[in-house]
Specification:
There is one protein chain. The longest helix is centred in the middle third of the chain and has 19 residues. The chain has a domain of 80 residues: Alpha Horseshoe (Serine Threonine Protein Phosphatase 5, Tetratricopeptide repeat). The N and C termini lie far apart (47 Å). α1 runs antiparallel to α2, α5 runs antiparallel to α6 and α9 runs antiparallel to α10. It is mostly helical and 221 residues long. It is built from 10 helices and no strands.
Length: 221
Amino acid sequence: MHYLGGFPARARPALVEALALRRALLADDHPDLAQTLTNLGLLEKDYGDIETAVAMLGEALDVRRAALAPDHYRIGQAMLNLAIALRDSGDYEPAERLFEAAMERLAEQLGAGHPQVAVAHTERGQLFLDTGRYGEAEAAFRESLTIRRAALGEGHPHLAWSLLGLGRSLAASGRKAEALPLLGEAVEIRQRVLPPENPLRQLAEATLRDAEQAVEAGGLP
């Protein structure tokens, strides 16, 4: 798929065409329809069309619920995707409820130490960070980091998400000196696996740089 291969501009028309074909050929509760809605919804979110993303990911969740057993883990994944889009749209209350439901579903079906549960903690932590609830954000990112270190091992690229979120939470609450080693580890990971022009690498580097400058200035602990 072009999107997964790093070519979103090519993926968009292909996914739109695939969705039209699947709507025409498949039943309304077919799993392949849910997957195409998910892929296109996530792509629209990355393009910044949050309204369309929420609609598509909401429909994907409806299809999953119609097609699968009530406790299936893919329903939890669909809940998580929609929660992320709702959070990014600023609709925080329903997003938080969906995060809670998704984490419960994924933990029950996959186990509390599964990397997918770590994703849920990370994304929920971002909601807390966005809304200024830094203590709750710290707890969520710490849990995601604990899970990822145990499940994926030291130095895994996905650790950078948890490290960066935890570092940002500490920095936002005025604990920039505590944030530095976490942000430094996130930067080391991203520098190892991503090219200099990658925006995720640049974000980590900029966050670390800001924290270092604040500590050097002596204005914050």
